[in-house]
Amino acid sequence: MEVTSCTSYDFNFNVQDIFNKYLVEGKSSDLRKFWMTTGLFPQEILIDLKKLTTVSEVRFTSHAVKKVRLEGSEARSATSFKVIAESEFKKNDKLQDESIRVWRE
What we know:
The chain is mainly beta. It is built from one helix and six strands.
């Protein structure tokens, strides 16, 4: 997996750290590695999975996220996308740990 495009970037918070490998592998998180944004406008992140992959669920560990929409593309050139999941996160002042299930046709 690799982030190929992102609408917000801060040199202090590398966008590749959006994938905290410790969280992905179910191990203790390395809290020094995370991605942060200003949150002033909707963020778009384009992720290349490198090969055709079936995704059933996406997990977010976040703070103050209101709504997430996932879009996917089966084209190698990633030129046409369709919405595959949407969710509104619970509002709280703590760390959000949310999973979103991908819709099946």
